Amino acid sequence: DIQMTQSPSSLSASVGDRVTITCQASQDISNYLNWYQQKPGKAPKLLIYDASNLETGVPSRFSGSGSGTDFTFTISSLQPEDIATYYCQQYDNLPSFGPGTKVDIK
Amino acid sequence: EVQLVESGGGLVKPGGSLRLSCAASGFTFSSYSMNWVRQAPGKGLEWVSSISSSSSYIYYADSVKGRFTISRDNAKNSLYLQMNSLRAEDTAVYYCARDKGYCSSTSCSTSFDYWGQGTLVTVSS
Predict the structure, then answer these.
(1) Do B45 and A38 touch (CB under 8 A)?
(2) A45 interface with B at CB cutoff 8 Å
(3) Residue in B84, B93, B98 with CA at minimum distance from that of residue B23
(4) How many CB pairs under 8 A join A and B?
(5) Which residue of chain B has the CA closest to A29?
(6) How far apart are CA A74 and CA B107, in angstroms?
(7) Which residues, 6+ apart, have CB-to-CB distance to B41 below 8 Å?
(8) How far apart (Å, rounded) are the C-alpha atoms in residues B60 and B55?
(9) CB-CB: which of A53, A87, A94 is closest to B45?
(10) Do A34 and A48 contact (CB within 8 A), yes or no?
(11) What is the pLDDT at residue B3?
(12) Secondary structure (3-state) at A46
């Protein structure tokens, strides 16, 4: 099974800050990596698919990059409504999620 | 508007059974693979099972294989999850999620673009 790790597990940043989350796969998954946002009590929301494609309707301050085993998710300018937990998800074989990164405002 | 509405959750004793349903609307249900994803209280997301559009391909996480059965009825725009031999560790919110079905020039991806609101399953004596 492919294992996914994310770092950091949590972070605090100021409004307007650039926020970066990394996701690492235990083996090469090409670009088979998605990113989701989950707010408390809500279902997850797809933000980025295939490592770098922005889902329709998602603000352009969200972006993703990477391939192989190392991936990065970036919020270019953190907004109050971005407070959430962010998950990466691979689909090289059966889907699996990373453990999540909780983002809040400093 | 795409809508996915889960039902069937509740309290069940260890070893018991439960059947979850997901009613889909706002899209051509028969054209999309569907999935169940769960989230234990205060924990992360765990993919549970997937079923292709025509039910030809079915997959399960190791944690539920042999105990859970996914199915669908395209005529009723509905997805199901039959859960047997339930354990305390199956306690979670269960979401149904649509597979976006995106294909590039070289491969098709698996991403979950629409989710239901979730239904809570609690396994406890």
Answers:
(1) yes
(2) yes
(3) B98
(4) 62
(5) B109
(6) 25
(7) B91, B92, B93
(8) 13
(9) A87
(10) yes
(11) 98
(12) strand
Strands (E), chain B: 3-7, 10-12, 18-25, 34-39, 45-51, 58-60, 68-73, 78-83, 92-99, 112-115, 119-123
Give the pLDDT confidence of B2-52 residue by residue, as tens digits: 999 999 999 999 999 999 999 999 999 999 999 999 999 999 999 999 999
3-class DSSP assignment, residue B89: helix
Q: Which residue has the tokens 């946002």?
A: A37
Touching check for A97 and chain B: CB below 8 Å?
yes
What amino acid occupies position B25?
S
Determine the residue type at A33.
L
Sign of CA dihedral A17, A7, A39, A106: negative
Report which residue type is found at B14. Answer: P
Average pLDDT over residues B56-69: 96
Contact assignment for B109 to A98 by CB distance below 8 Å: no
Question: Which of left, alpha, beta for B8 (phi over 0: left; psi -120 to 50: alpha)?
Answer: left
> Cα separation of B22 and B112, whole Å?
15
Strand pairing of A62-67 and B58-60?
Answer: unpaired
Q: What percent of chain A has pLDDT over 70?
A: 100
